[in-house]
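Hey, resending since the last one bounced:
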Amino acid sequence: MLARAGRAPLATLIAVTALVAITASTSLAGAGSGAPAPTAGGTAPRSPPAAPPRTPAAGAGRYRIVGCRSHGAGAYRSGPSRREVAIGFDDGPAPDTGAFVTMLERSSAQATFFMIGEQVSSEYTSTLLRELRNGDVLGDHTYTHPDLVLSPDVRGQLQRTIGVIRALSGYTPCIFRPPYGDYDQSVLQTARSLGLATVLWNVDPSDYTQPGAGAIEQRVLEQVRPGSIIISHDGGGPRGQTLAAYPKIIASLRARGYRIVTIPQLLGFRPVYVPCIELCAGIGVPRSALPRNAIIERAP
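The structure tokens again:
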């Protein structure tokens, strides 16, 4: 009796041990196969909900403009003789620059902004990005606006301005306008070595003298020809008269059959794009929207 009583717990222990081993084996097999373990009632639990599809990065499949490629060893005063006109605004960024950008937006027109490097500060970052988003072009107008023929540091004047524009906007200028239109062969060569084409003008309403919006409008329309490059100013002083004149100037030019373009477009310079990674908010465009002559580079 005592012997039978001693053997019964041992048999039970063996049976329990075997059951535990079988259960563990089944659980491991299910874990290895990805199958859910059965519940106490014998029914497999519901699978966890599938993870939501991954959303592409904000700039995925889009490209942003980062500069342009210019050419030519001389100074440009106009473009090809076709019914296109380019408008350049000098001496910004300045307090009035944002209003000029708004005016261009309302007129569905683009312009080229030649900027003074020491004025390109972080307070104008959103303005520069807005200009790029609208299709405007950023140009170099030296760092402190000196007469470059008399300057001992032409390279520094141009290079520092390229650097600050690129740092705030991601855009590298390919055109430059010498202050006062003053240049010599050395200035041309230095600009060219930095990838800059020298751009002047053949229409000048002398808006900086503030002759009145009507006079500015009249002077532009009297001087303009196919391929003209117009100079005006968004900085260097109060520019309310210039601002008031340009909606009518743009409308009148279009009524004459002119297309308003940027200076690089007028001169056939190629825009450069990279895949969107940084500074792409509102600027990136799909590849199908890139200009036919665009250069696409790898993102840095």
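The domain at 66-296 is CATH 3.20.20.370 (TIM Barrel).

Sorry for the duplicate.
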